[in-house]
Amino acid sequence: MNKENIALVIGGTGSIGSAIINELKNQKFTNIISLGRSSNPPLDLLDEFSIKKAADFIKNQPGSLCLLFDATGILHSEDQNQMPEKTYKNIDLTFMKKNFEINVMGPALIMKHFLPLLDTDQKSIFATLSAKVGSISDNRYGGWYSYRASKAALNQMIKTASIELKMKNKNAICVAIHPGTVTSKLSQPFQKDNLKIQSNVESAKNIMQVMTNLKMNDSGLFFDWSGDIINW
Ligand SMILES: NC(=O)c1ccc[n+]([C@@H]2O[C@H](COP(=O)([O-])OP(=O)(O)OC[C@H]3O[C@@H](n4cnc5c(N)ncnc54)[C@H](OP(=O)(O)O)[C@@H]3O)[C@@H](O)[C@H]2O)c1
């Protein structure tokens, strides 16, 4: 019998993450697992031990990890009642730290504990949801200091990990994906009529298409939901 193909979504409780889980049901995966703060075992990006325990849990599942999809992230902070900064005068250390902890350090720890589990015998993928506003070359409007900078740092993590993965796992592809503007708790305060807004289902279908089409030499790149490459 063929071995089990595991697809793991971290942040499967979110708008895009939950839609990705639904899309995965139409794919080759035999075991679809969602982990996050409310799963069993729980995975909290602010707690490395929980990330390690979650990786041990995946290691003990039958089969191998073919897809690792990170759908976590923050843009504004409800507990601190803070919105992205419109000006450098609004820069706040606590809010900036939170952006970096969730959007950069959390995914970095996911890489540390989960990338060694990616299947080495067949194509395996690590994809993380970044954001086009993290592109330095595309920055035309300014603002959103913490979020932009955290996503730019996340992009650098992806590029760096792709270089290491080329040496350690020739079948692994590592990419950053911009999902488009998608209806969610995260984007709700910023949705404008003039923006193209996708439903989470639409975006997940598009992202799945991008992942299906990924080739080995796409590793280390930044794609948008339509499959176009975004310059760093
Ligand atoms: N929506 C958009 O328009 C848009 C545009 C560009 C980029 N993105 C990116 O897409 C990603 C997903 O966004 P979304 O719109 O789907 O947001 P969302 O619905 O708010 O989902 C965010 C997810 O992050 C998880 N999360 C937050 N803090 C966490 C922590 N400490 N530990 C573990 N998980 C944590 C949440 O888990 P809980 O359920 O436990 O809170 C939830 O699953 C983000 O990286 C975002 O930057 C979104």
Describe this structure in words.
The protein is globular and about 55 Å long. The chain is 35% helix and 16% strand. It has a six-stranded parallel sheet with strand order 2-1-3-4-5-8, with helices on both faces. It has a single domain, classed as Rossmann fold (3-Layer(aba) Sandwich), CATH 3.40.50.720. The N and C termini lie far apart (43 Å). It contains five helices and eight strands; from the N terminus they run E-H-E-H-E-H-E-H-E-E-E-H-E. Helix 1 crosses helix 5 (200-212), helix 2 packs parallel to helix 3 (93-114) and helix 3 (93-114) runs parallel beside helix 4. By secondary structure, the chain is α/β, with parallel strands linked by helices. Bound molecules: NADP nicotinamide-adenine-dinucleotide phosphate. NADP nicotinamide-adenine-dinucleotide phosphate (NAP) binds next to helix 1 and strand 6.
Notable traits:
about 230 residues; alpha/beta; Rossmann fold; six-stranded parallel β-sheet; about 35% helix
Short description:
This protein has one domain (5-224): NAD(P)-binding Rossmann-like Domain (Rossmann fold, 3-Layer(aba) Sandwich), CATH 3.40.50.720. The protein is 35% helix and 16% strand. It has helices spanning 15-24, 48-59, 93-114, 145-168, 200-212; strands at 5-10, 31-35, 64-70, 124-129, 172-178, 181-182, 197-198, 222-224.
Shape: globular
> What is the helical fraction, as a range of percent?
25-40%
Query: Could you tell me the number of beta strands?
Result: 8
> Which architecture would the CATH scheme give at its second level?
3-Layer(aba) Sandwich
Which ligands, by name, code or SMILES, are bound? NADP nicotinamide-adenine-dinucleotide phosphate
Quickly count the helices: 5
| CATH fold topology | Rossmann fold
